[in-house]
């Protein structure tokens, strides 16, 4: 599964050195694959791993993955500070012209950066993603990942935000999952860093703010990033407060004066969407902790919360019925095939 070193010298006359940043917590089982996939790419100048308060030997495993090239640096926090803080710290420690984020249980596919860096006219550049069930990993052959047409396109703010809003019976292809290469010069010029208030949606927030500042966000159809889908992922265990913080981040962007027209409307819709999810979760928390009466008073005290609460409760009941009827179960012995963020681009 580990990528092979790209052949051939890099001849571009612009600074295309890449720093790969991996923020990790309790990732000892996966961190070696992530690091190796980065070190085996000739464009990668630095790999900075930040062990964010792990208790399972993540830092030791990361250090043992060193290939002796002098490009790997492992930083350990004794106390967990969150992915945004860890990434910002790594950016401050790096010197490469390009910043690339890699999650600790994911990996790069061979040749990723030669595809992404083939052109220069962008501030952020991302590619297609293969979502792979964790049960495939031990036997995965990267050559089995589907090939995609080579076209590139540029992402605008309304499209990006709208594709991060879930809608009933429609796969949204959430663009917040994108892991672009980002030009340090653009980040520094606009003082852009990850919001350290966020432990959910920190990628979405950074990309939205960059696009609001007229970032040229290139996307190519080629698949260069492997995202491992796990039942126990951190993104599936977010706190109720995390939903509120993400809605508040949208509100700050709306109040920045940078938005107008369709962009403003899209961010407003996303803010309402996240605020509604927060109200629903807050209702459920109160119901669990203090009973239905207290939860009901919360809804009455927040009239704007009533519709999302009712909608969320109905969706929960429908999901429960679907699960009990077995409609979403995968047959025994079968594993879901990899899915792709942009499946329609396949050759």
From TrEMBL:
<dbReference type="InterPro" id="IPR001173">
    <property type="entry name" value="Glyco_trans_2-like"/>
</dbReference>
<dbReference type="InterPro" id="IPR050834">
    <property type="entry name" value="Glycosyltransf_2"/>
</dbReference>
<dbReference type="InterPro" id="IPR029044">
    <property type="entry name" value="Nucleotide-diphossugar_trans"/>
</dbReference>
<keyword id="KW-0808">Transferase</keyword>
<feature type="domain" description="Glycosyltransferase 2-like">
    <location>
        <begin position="19"/>
        <end position="134"/>
    </location>
</feature>
<dbReference type="GO" id="GO:0016740">
    <property type="term" value="F:transferase activity"/>
</dbReference>
<protein>
    <submittedName>
        <fullName>Glycosyl transferase family A</fullName>
    </submittedName>
</protein>
<dbReference type="Pfam" id="PF00535">
    <property type="entry name" value="Glycos_transf_2"/>
</dbReference>
């Amino acid at each position: 599964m580990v990528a092979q070193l790209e052949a051939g010298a890099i001849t571009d006359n612009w600074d295309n050195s890449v720093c790969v940043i991996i923020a990790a917590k309790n990732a000892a089982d996966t961190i070696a694959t992530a690091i190796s996939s980065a070190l085996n790419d000739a464009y990668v100048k630095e790999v900075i791993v930040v062990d964010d308060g792990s208790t399972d030997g993540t830092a030791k495993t990361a250090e043992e993955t060193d290939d002796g090239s002098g490009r790997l640096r492992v930083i350990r926090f004794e106390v967990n500070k969150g992915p945004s803080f860890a990434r910002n710290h790594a950016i401050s420690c790096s010197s490469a012209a390009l910043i690339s984020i890699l999650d600790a249980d994911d990996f790069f596919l061979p040749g990723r950066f030669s595809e992404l860096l083939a052109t220069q006219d962008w501030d952020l550049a991302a590619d297609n993603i293969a979502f792979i069930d964790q049960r495939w990993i031990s036997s995965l052959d990267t050559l089995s990942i589907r090939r995609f047409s080579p076209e590139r396109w540029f992402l605008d703010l309304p499209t990006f935000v709208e594709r991060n809003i879930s809608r009933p019976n429609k796969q949204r292809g959430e663009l917040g999952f994108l892991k672009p290469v980002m030009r340090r010069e653009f980040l520094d010029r606009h003082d852009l860093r990850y919001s350290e208030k966020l432990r959910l949606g920190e990628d979405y927030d950074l990309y939205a703010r960059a696009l609001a500042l007229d970032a040229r966000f290139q996307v190519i159809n080629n698949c260069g990033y492997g995202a491992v889908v796990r039942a126990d992922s951190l993104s599936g265990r977010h706190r109720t407060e995390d939903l509120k913080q993400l809605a508040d981040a949208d509100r700050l962007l709306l109040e920045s004066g940078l938005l107008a027209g369709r962009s403003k409307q899209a961010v407003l819709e996303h803010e309402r969407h996240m605020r509604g999810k927060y109200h629903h979760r807050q209702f459920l928390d109160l119901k669990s902790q203090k009973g239905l009466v207290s939860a009901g008073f919360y809804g009455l005290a927040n009239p704007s919360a009533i519709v999302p609460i009712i909608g969320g409760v109905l969706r929960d009941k429908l999901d429960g019925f679907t699960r009990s009827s077995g409609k979403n179960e995968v047959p025994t012995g079968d594993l879901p095939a990899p899915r792709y963020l942009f499946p329609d681009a396949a050759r």
